[in-house]
Specification:
This protein has 488 residues and is of the alpha/beta class. It has 17 helices and 13 strands. The protein has 2 domains: 162 residues; 271 residues, 3-Layer(aba) Sandwich (Rossmann fold). The longest helix has 29 residues.
Length: 488
């Protein structure tokens, strides 16, 4: 099968990643790559604006970039002994907060030290990386009229690889692209809506939701606790052309939510999120005196903040009776059945008629964990007290021994089932409130959907049995013929 242009681009970058081993740590390579892509993008955008080839664009302004500057100027004098030092000085002159938050200067100081040692490997690596970025971004800008889309897509593929590495260290929580696409389609965003992710990570989920909207009138809000990841989130918005409609804040969402009006949380039409599972230090003590009244249905256990994120997201929904706000959240399956404080919270949410659907996902879909997860969909102002259960636990491709992946066909199959909202044998079930109450408000999908497994047929065994039966029939026929001759 012929490779896509994106796959070819990634292959070029990954060849350089292989070259970097022994020179740079993987996170240093990715930070360097992210920085260079952004610098190239902004320089070229400024050139296009100066040439009047673009009337709309990013709100990002780099006043310290000369109007006639070209990215190639940064690497064409690679043989100079102080090349890397000069490059670092240039980046420092940009004085852009996201670079400071990424602590990019630390990476470049490491590069400078290598350069001062006259390390030919580092000169060769940086030269090839800058040349590759230069060529790829130029091509992407020419491939589409709305060029941010192409660069943004490439950047998200790079982020996926970066997240895969960082998840092995337990440093990042990243939503796979196919899960983001499924969630975006399930919530059906529309023009004019305000969309929020309280633990936005790199903002790939927010961006995927925004791309479902037919139009450009929407607002994106996200908060991320990790300073470096928040910086990457802002860069992601820039490269996808959404920085002018987005507001990314850095901080602890549970202890210090950034989007509020006094003691009232800001309300959103749509909340989508994939929070970290089983956070132990989530703010249990502070929850007893929460000024935003997020825990009126109960305080989650001290050592597990799963429901803290759910309750924060619920309280961030617009409760206007003329609107139907939606929340789509990824949870561990323990959220569906654990008792104690969590059981009481779950019961209260169901009694309030907020839960709309429970979708059981296949195992091994997410980076950094192999546990099975589910998607919960909540809605305000529901017309009935029913909940749809979908068993999608077998809808996946086996990507490798330890990783599964949702295919396009699985995404649309789940979407069709949710849209139809009806019971289907072994796949979905629409339960009413009384049934859920009879199950003690346990939301485990297998309690509502019985999976009837078809018996596998062993053709060899079946053929052997047929052969035995045929021999028996033949023997009986011989006996019958013998008896008939004797009778005559």
């Amino acid at each position: 099968m012929e490779k896509t242009t994106y796959e070819n681009d990634i292959d070029q970058i990954w060849d350089l990643l292989g070259m970097s081993k022994g020179i740079l740590k993987e996170e240093q390579f990715f930070e360097l790559l992210i920085t260079l892509i952004l610098i190239k993008f902004v320089i070229l955008k400024k050139n296009m604006i100066n040439l009047n080839t673009e009337t709309q664009g990013s709100d990002v302004n780099f006043p310290n970039i000369p109007d006639d500057m070209r990215f190639k100027e940064l690497y064409e004098n690679i043989k100079e002994p102080y090349f890397l030092k000069n490059l670092c000085s240039f980046i420092e002159r940009l004085k852009y907060d996201s670079f400071n938050q990424l602590e990019i200067t630390q990476t470049f100081k490491y590069l400078q030290n290598l350069a001062l040692k006259d390390d030919k490997r580092i000169n060769s690596l940086v030269y090839r990386l800058m040349m590759t970025v230069d060529q790829i971004v130029n091509i992407k800008l020419l491939e589409a009229q709305k060029h941010e889309t192409n660069i943004g897509t490439l950047f998200n593929i790079i982020l996926t690889k970066y997240a895969n590495y960082m998840s092995k260290k337990g440093d990042e929580n990243f939503t796979p692209l196919e899960i983001s696409k499924l969630m975006a389609k399930l919530v059906g965003p529309t023009e004019g809506e305000e969309i929020y992710d309280p633990v936005c990570g790199s903002s790939s989920l927010l961006i995927r939701v925004a791309k479902e909207i037919q139009g450009n009138r929407f607002s994106l809000y996200g908060q991320e606790i990790n300073i470096r990841t928040a910086a990457i989130s802002k860069i992601n918005m820039i490269l996808n052309g959404m920085d002018s409609v987005s507001n990314i804040a850095q901080g602890d969402t549970l202890r210090n939510p950034m989007f509020h009006d006094g003691e009232t949380l800001k309300k959103f039409d749509l909340v989508v999120t994939n929070p970290p599972f089983a956070v132990s230090n989530w703010g249990y003590e502070e929850a007893h005196h929460d000024p935003y009244n997020r825990y009126m249905r109960g305080i989650p256990p001290k050592r597990n903040g799963d429901y803290a994120f759910i309750l924060h997201a619920i309280e961030s929904l617009n409760k206007d009776i003329n609107k139907q706000s939606r929340l789509c959240i990824v949870t561990s399956n323990g959220v569906l059945f654990r008792g104690g404080a969590e059981g009481k919270i779950r019961e209260n949410l169901i009694k309030e008629n907020l839960l709309d659907a429970v979708i059981a996902l296949p195992a091994n879909l997410f980076y950094g964990t192999g546990i099975s997860c589910s998607i919960l969909i909540f809605k305000t102002n529901k017309k009935d007290k029913k909940v749809l259960f979908i068993d999608a636990s077998e809808m996946c491709h086996k990507k490798d021994r330890i990783k599964n992946r949702l295919g396009e066909e699985h995404i649309f199959q789940i979407l069709d089932i949710y849209t139809e909202y009806k019971s289907l044998d072994s796949i979905s079930y629409v339960a009413d409130y009384s049934e859920i109450k009879e199950n003690d408000f346990n939301l485990t999908v297998s309690r509502y959907i019985t999976f009837v497994q078809e018996e596998e047929i062993d053709l060899k065994v079946e053929m052997d049995e047929i052969e035995i039966i045929e021999k028996k029939i033949l023997a009986i026929q011989k006996e019958m013929h013998k008896s008939l001759k004797n009778f005559k």
